[in-house]
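As a point of orientation, let us examine one representative protein, giving the amino acid sequence and backbone structure tokens.
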Amino acid sequence: MRLEPRQLRLVRQEGPLLPQIEAALATVEGKPLRWAITSVSPAEITGPEAASWGRELVLEAVFCLADSP
């Protein structure tokens, strides 16, 4: 077993945030042990939608990877 830190980026879409984060974490091999949103970039859109979605989020996560035999 080894631990590997990763940084992921995702653009916030309309709807609940947690499923979007879980989907981004699922793209990486291994089991995520912990994660955090460490940065949020300004939205590239304007209007009422800009307050909640359209922003780029940076996630930092630690994954547990199985050792190769």
User: Anything to note?
Assistant: Residues 42 and 64 are 31 Å apart (CA to CA). The first strand starts at residue 2 and ends at 11.
